[in-house]
Amino acid sequence: KQKSKYKNKTMEDLNHPESNEKFLNEPSKVLELMQFLDLMLNANKMEDKREGKAAAPKAYPDPSEDVTDKNFYISSRGGSRAGSRMSRRSTRRTRSKSKMASNTNQFTFMRQIEQTEDQRLEVFKERERVANNFRRQKHSSTNCDLVIESIFFRQGNVAYCKDQFNYAIELYSKGMDYIPDSPVLYINRACCYIKLRNFKMAIMDCNHVLCTLDPKYLRAFLYRAFAYKRMGDEKNFEQSIDEAKRVNSRSLNFIETFLERMRTA
Fold it and tell me: The organism sits in which domain of life (predicted)?
């Protein structure tokens, strides 16, 4: 049994690809490749017509001619040593890059120090000019938003005064598409919903203003309280009025006037 195991093991070793030594008896693949490349390079060259013979192909020495079991050499090594060499090269490269970056930073710093007073003043003016341009662009975009808001606000108010509440809601909603953070548009739309007796939608707009845009917006508290009152929800009505008084303690007279008008309406 031991002999059969040994024989099977030796047969496996002989059939292993690394044990195949046919290349020692066959022509060199490297030599064939070199000759093939030489033929490709000289394919378009004209033949020597004077002698009536083509140019003789270049002869390449066979590097495997004298290779035997005992006469050979290894040109490169693999394994962990090669990996360590690559890691050393990479660390050297990163160190050289960091040195270059530090050198460039030092260079720019020294160049700033070596500037004259007039040069520093010129650089300061240029930076100030760029900053002012940025401020103007930001201010112009803000002014554009205000113009858009005022257009839809006025058109919606005109429609509201004509009792065109659905059209006013449409105009206020279009304004929100351009300026989604305007509490005035939401509150005016809530007022239109109240006129149409759509109290739930009015409460939703008021809650959006108080929870997202402005937690102290007085008209949102009052319109929400009015909607709860018309729905018969006394508990939420009282809670909205109490929150309005607590958050806007300086506007108690206005709140009382609003409640008085609501009772007489």
Answer: Eukaryota
pLDDT tens digits for the chain (265 residues)? 444 544 555 555 555 555 566 666 666 677 777 777 777 676 655 555 445 555 555 666 666 666 666 666 666 555 445 455 555 555 555 555 555 555 444 545 455 555 566 766 676 666 666 666 655 554 444 556 666 667 777 888 888 889 899 999 998 898 888 888 889 899 999 999 999 999 999 999 999 999 999 999 999 999 999 999 999 999 999 999 999 999 999 999 999 999 998 888 6
Domains and CATH numbers, the chain: 136-264 (1.25.40.10)
The Cα–Cα gap between 40 and 58 comes to 12
- The answer to whether 184 and 214 have CB atoms below 8 angstroms apart is no
pTM value is: 0.47
Tokens 């710093």 correspond to 109
